[in-house]
Amino acid sequence: MLHDFSHWYLSVLGQGGYWLIAGLMALESTVVPIPSETIIPPAAYLAHTQGGMSLIGVILAGTAGSWVGASLMYWAARLLGRPVVMRFGRYVGVPPSKVDLAERWSQQYGWASVFFSRLLPVIRHLIGIPGGILEWDFRWYSAATLLGSLLWCSVLAWLGATLGSHPEVLKGSVHRFALLAALAALVLATLYYVFVHRAALKRVPRAY
Question: Which domain holds residue 52?
Fold first, then answer.
């Protein structure tokens, strides 16, 4: 599935440009399981090697898209309320256990949870739920989201551009892009386990 997505993405990226990057990053920040590691690095790689897009443009498009998706999650949770989210969230990939995890994370780290969530898998697209339910100030939520997304997109873009400076590493291979994404996902999964999952297990889960 990852291979098919990467193949499609690389085939249409030249035509879709910044709008495609922003759109996919917006989806990645909601409940759609699209890894950002398969969006930003290939775009930065092509921007560095083929032109047509700038590295700064790729970063800004990714950041803007992340903010849009995170904002949708925030306002959806705020308008629907916790009872509706807890009851029906499972049908869109957000079961009560994930909502509970996001709430614990936000309670433990406060506003910093929004910033750092942009750097971690799973919790990345969930942090807007407690933010909306608890009616956090949207301006602060947006600021933390933008800063975290900017940092994450910059790291991913740097990685793609660095690989672009060494074409012998990738040579335009879709398979190797997928391998790169898988390795990045493994690192992130480790960080997620250490900083999110283990921290959440220290608290007694609620019963629903």
Answer: 2-201
